[in-house]
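Let's practice the habit of predicting before peeking. Look at the sequence and jot down your guess about where helices and strands might fall. Then scroll down.
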Amino acid sequence: MVPNVLFAIPDGPLKSHMFSAEWRARLEGLTQVEWNDTGRELTSAELAERITDKDILITGWGSPRVTDAVLNAAPRLKMIAHSAGTVRWLVEESFFDRGIVLTNANLALAPSVAEYCLMTILMARWRILDSIKRVRDGLWQSNNDIVPGLNGAKIGLIGYGAIAEELIRLLRQFDVRIAIHSEHLSEEQARQMGVRRCSMEEALHSDVVSLHKTLTESTRHMIGKRELDMIPDGGILINTSRGALIDEAELIHQLERGRIHAVLDVFEEEPLPHGHPLRTMPGAIVTPHCAGTSAYFRQAMAELVLSDIECVLNDMRPRGAISKAKYMSMTPM
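Done guessing? Here is the structure:
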């Protein structure tokens, strides 16, 4: 019997640039698909009504939460394929008692964020914004003006997951020393990747410090005055995880002093309010939560979703499978 699929993401730019016409045709070749043709996010009541005879639910940005009430209306559901990152907001912890497969597309999203990290590390270590400003101000470079560059740098990663792993892979072509502080990285894994496990303090004593932790109550403002003071003069702090990992008021104070630099793609309040000091702060590269917006990797995320659906249909374990333990370690927003 051909499985029934509900594609909950509404029509719009996201659907068109992430899920190509060819991709949609391939999905229709495997399954019987009901598309969300409302032009908006489905309500919980609409989702419950549409999911009653479905075997697979495809969610993503623009999908409603899949509550216990919705799941109670879906006796045939065997899989939720989430085409984005964290699923902590999508389902409740009790979901895992139902035996339904849950996947996400984080394995395909991670290389996009890692690519952004590498780009901005290079920009910051090469002081590219300063060089651009110098030219715009009618000035020029002399042989007495030098920049630190990336080769020779010590890189400290705080947290370890798919993004950190991809970033390590990209950094291998450079002469850098990488140290990681994470309870999720074993000595054997570190050895195989050519990196060192280290303490939080040692990771902070690096030329580049990149955050790769999930946001929980215990990690909120984990980077405060004490931690910022540990970063060496001229060091660079990068955050592509969640804004609330950093005490922004303390970071602003450090940036005002010109002691360190920062690359920030996430913030405690998003969008960043107009007039917020971080928007114009010297020494900071500030971007609008765009590290995951590569067109190439967005399409790779869609490919992973389809591949995982094929795995489930063939009684194989999907690459993007989310266990309860992995779910509990994710950022809940």
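How did you do? The chain has a mean pLDDT of 96.
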